[in-house]
Amino acid sequence: MASAVRDGRTVIVVGSGLAGLTAASAALQSNANAVVLLERAAKPGGNSIKASSGINGAPTRFQLQSHPDTAFFSDTVKSAGKRIYSEATLEQTRRKGLIKLLTDSSAAAVDFLANEIGVDLSVVTQLGGHSAARTHRGAGRTPPGADIITRLLGELRQDSRFELKTDSEVIRLLSSSHSPGPAGSSSPPAIIGVEYRSGNELSSVAGPVVFATGGFAGDADGLLAKHRPDLSGLPSTNEPRSGMHRLLTDVGAQLVDMDSVQIHPTGFVDPLSRDSPLKFLAAEMLRGEGGILLHNGRRFVDELDTREHVSRAIMDMEPGSGPLKQWDVQLLLDPGACQTAASHVAFYEWKGLLSRKKVSELDETTRSTLRDYSLAATKQIPDVFGRTSFGHWALTGGHEDDDQEVCIGWVTPVTHFTMGGVAINDKCQVLSSSLDAETEAPVPGLWAAGEITGGIHGDNRLGGSSLLECVVFGRIAGEQAAAEARSN
């Protein structure tokens, strides 16, 4: 093995998605001596760089609402479902505490990206499960994930204390020997660095560690098969790669909610490659801006209900034929929705995932559905499924709509996000104790942020909160690790 590089005052970040980059930024801002970021892929960005709907925040200066948005916490608790209402009082308190930290810190997270990193977050949309418009993205052509990652990485690369190593896979957390704990027990060993492989060479680096390696929705034959075998055969928006949770459990980390896997209702089905298990996400903001879902030309759900509910409404129907579990559902956007989501629509059209048709070219069932929905969107009748927010839908339901063009694509539910992961506290310390334990037992020298963590989203994550948790908890983890590095 090559000798260890740098010293214990270096902060080590594992994973280069938004959580990892934010942790690195916070560690440098907190006067860490150095930050080494290790990424197993050839390029940085993780799944964050593909995020297309935006980042939640409330209340922010970008929200054009007559009253302050104060319902983010309650919306998140409602979406998280029954796991929040554990019979264990301590567990319930800790879960709600993490949600409160997430939502209370959301405006500061948006400000950090907008003011310090220079990300445009001026467009605000209401996504499914939200009671107000609070999901921020830019007005330009670059999707929010790519814009945030590119700008944040550019900022980091200007700092001589920052070092990014791609094609560098962490294979082991280095720890000290066990030390005596209270009442004669043993506390978890302190983490003092990592061992990683780059090509054929093994190296190590010493220092406190922030783990930000993402979830396991793409680990179809590993963690996903173990914890949710019923999801076998579903396509995914995630690259097929193994989760890195074992490295954390090997040093005593406690896992939570590993069976809680989010199915996103709309992954595009490529007409030229229908049976590909890897799907492009049809961003939730397409529905937020007015888009509707159709089965045999008819709507069947409030498209802005939670992802869990919309996915279930689709999956309760008979799937189509073929080697994959996928359903024959259409996503349709009218000219108003297409225009507002123009940057996304142009990309999806280029990929062959969306196509355009005149309303007059649609079958009669679909045209009838459009007329009814357009009348609801213009407040002439109530929506049959109770939808109250229609984004920028522009069709009116009259004959003048016939010459208008709509955008249509085929979509299906996909595995998308894993709510389960390692248990953390409000300092983002990785815990070797369960959430209902009387006493927290942090693993010394180890923090985590992003999708690798569990206990925050419960049964269902709200759209726009994945980027948010990366920023909120990434900042905390980086600050805490930097303080640990300075004390060495």
UniProtKB/TrEMBL annotation:
Cofactor binding mode and count: Binds 1 FAD per monomer.
Organism superkingdom: Eukaryota
EC number(s) from the headed UniProt entry: 1.3.1.6
Cofactor: FAD
Record-linked Gene3D superfamilies: FAD/NAD(P)-binding domain (3.50.50.60), Succinate dehydrogenase/fumarate reductase flavoprotein, catalytic domain (3.90.700.10)
InterPro entries: FAD-dep_OxRdtase_2_FAD-bd (IPR003953), FAD-oxidoreductase_2 (IPR050315), FAD/NAD-bd_sf (IPR036188), Flavocytochrome_c (IPR010960), Succ_DH/fumarate_Rdtase_cat_sf (IPR027477)
SUPFAM superfamilies: FAD/NAD(P)-binding domain, Succinate dehydrogenase/fumarate reductase flavoprotein, catalytic domain
Keywords from the UniProt entry: FAD, Flavoprotein, Oxidoreductase
UniProt keyword annotation of Metal-binding present: no
Catalysed transformations (reactions): succinate + NAD(+) = fumarate + NADH + H(+)
Residue ranges constituting the FAD-dependent oxidoreductase 2 FAD-binding domain according to the UniProt record: 11-467
Pfam families, A to Z: FAD_binding_2
Keyword Flavoprotein attributed: yes
Family: Belongs to the FAD-dependent oxidoreductase 2 family. FRD/SDH subfamily.
Functional summary from the UniProt entry: Irreversibly catalyzes the reduction of fumarate to succinate.
Protein name in the entry: Fumarate reductase
Protein source organism: Sporothrix eucalyptigena
Lineage: Eukaryota, Fungi, Dikarya, Ascomycota, Pezizomycotina
